[in-house]
Specification:
The chain is α+β, with helices and mostly antiparallel strands. It has 4 helices and 13 strands. The chain has helices at residues 5-25, 45-55, 63-72, 77-80, and strands at 92-97, 104-110, 118-119, 125-132, 135-140, 168-174, 179-182, 188-192, 200-207, 212-216, 222-226, 231-232, 235-236. Its EC number is 1.13.11.20.
Length: 242
């Protein structure tokens, strides 16, 4: 049965309210270090996807539980191999689940030495779990952003800050099955595969999903970049479908 106009409006309003709540949550959320004691057991990738859909049924998403779900899954290549598509020249973003428009779950594939640019996350949450190999995250202070959460390197807020160049505030390795978390109040980041002999694969959750983000140069010049998918659901995308 087709939705009435009122039902359609209600559905759209619920999604707007959830997006607003999720973006507000970036102002205080900083991540779990280990799974919750009371969270669901996640044994497979389908379990993870089902649990995420269940969490996002509510307007008031429990971000800690989402973090728990990502932490609890243990990588099984047999489950994610069909989504892992590599390109010899650049890392790839491969859509696994579109989350009914409420989140995006992706597998990113990193060839030897591949890296991202320094970028933000459009006021969304970003969870990044290692499925194969290792990655290194370099984090930077977000230029000219009021209210940023400066955990790694406390600043003297009365001192002048030079926003003409990016300021690195931390570098962290991400080993197998670990989960890294970032949002724009925690900073910008650049992710790279430090190995020149092995590939890496990571599982990323973005909520709310976004179509563009900001990319930063060393001199803090900011440009807008379109977010694309190299493949969707294990199938290579055409240029007009990315």
């Amino acid at each position: 049965m087709a939705l009435s106009k009122i039902d359609t409006i209600d559905t759209e309003m619920e999604q707007v309210n959830q997006e607003k709540y999720l973006r507000q949550a970036t102002q205080y959320y900083c991540a779990l270090e280990k799974p919750l004691k009371y969270g669901p057991v996640i044994e497979t990738l389908p379990d993870l996807i089902t649990a995420l859909h269940r969490e996002f049924e509510s307007n008031y998403v429990n971000i800690e539980m989402v973090n728990h779900i990502m932490l609890s899954y243990k990588s099984n290549p047999k489950e994610w191999r069909k989504y892992a598509k590599f390109d010899r020249y650049t890392y790839t973003r491969n859509l696994v689940d579109a989350g009914n428009g409420k989140f995006n779950l992706l597998i990113l594939c990193w060839g030897e030495g591949h890296s991202s640019s320094v970028h933000d996350h459009a006021d969304s949450h970003c969870f990044m779990k290692m499925l194969k190999g290792d990655l290194r995250e370099k984090r930077y202070r977000y230029p000219n952003r009021p209210g940023a959460i400066e955990r790694e390197q406390p600043q003297d807020h009365h001192a002048e800050i030079d926003d003409n160049e990016l300021v690195e505030i931390g570098e962290t390795p991400i080993p197998l099955n670990d989960v890294a978390y970032i949002n724009d109040n925690l900073g910008l980041h650049r992710v790279e595969n430090p190995s020149h002999s092995d590939t890496s694969v990571s599982l990323h959750l973005y909520c709310p999903p976004f179509d563009t983000c900001s990319v930063f140069q060393d001199n803090c010049k900011k440009t807008t970049a379109k977010v694309t998918f190299w493949s969707k659901y294990g199938v290579r995308t055409k240029l007009d479908e990315q």
